[in-house]
Automatic annotation (TrEMBL):
The keyword Transmembrane helix applies. PANTHER family: INNER MEMBRANE PROTEIN, INNER MEMBRANE PROTEIN-RELATED. Keywords: Membrane, Transmembrane, Transmembrane helix. The chain crosses the membrane at residues 6-22, 42-60. This is DUF2065 domain-containing protein.
Amino acid sequence: MWEELAKAFCLMLVLEGIIPFLNPGRWRGLVATMATVSDRQLRIMGLASMLVGAGLLYFIK
């Protein structure tokens, strides 16, 4: 189980690094925009992301 968790973490880092590598200017703008979003909106986006990820894992498995 720990090996699979480590692989998933590594894959997440690879995927997270694609956008700043390909288009750093746009990524910088996105980060600046995210700084202006309220905490409530960020929490809702985080919850939605977790639910979509969990749902996809459920359907894949």
